[in-house]
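Revision sheet: structure tokens.
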Amino acid sequence: MQYSKKLRGISKRIEKIMDAEGVAGIVILYEPQISEFLIKLEAPFSAVHRVNVGLDQGFRIRAKAADFKGGEKERNQFLDNTVNMLVVLQDLLGITFMQVSEITNGLRDKFDIKEEHGSIREGLEEDNFIESTVESGITMTSEQWLEQPQFKGLVIQDPDGWDRNNFEYSFKEELITMAEFQERISRSTINLQSYRGLFKDRNKDQLN
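Predicted:
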């Protein structure tokens, strides 16, 4: 992928808006053969901070109670918010990837389209489970799909994507493909469980 002054400018403007509004997120911009990727995990509610010193690049987690004015209680709230943020971003990116992957594979198969310039995934193996379930048309109930590893932690708060008049059947008995399950999720209100214990066994020195 090439560098684009246009997309970089758009990305910078989006980042300024996110800073002003106090939100985190991941943004991917694209025009033919050019892309720009923005990942912003720093926010007023987040324990993530960015490191950009010499060879030390990336993100770190503030997990010491002494770093927070409210001590351990405030630290725990920040960690709860941070874990929820990361799990939401991770799961929604995963769902989006599967939807886009299915469309991409369909276009390639139907129109014999080949990648001309490679991609950032070049050389990486596809996830065998995702590939097999999407391409083979495997069907399960929505309840069973929700138990699959790639949907772990997903909580459906308001199931608008399912038949409310016959919810027991549409969620627990009706057999649907992964693509259909993803489409129903996209029309529903979802949330993800908080895992405060994620940080309990981590070495705090490594998180700072």
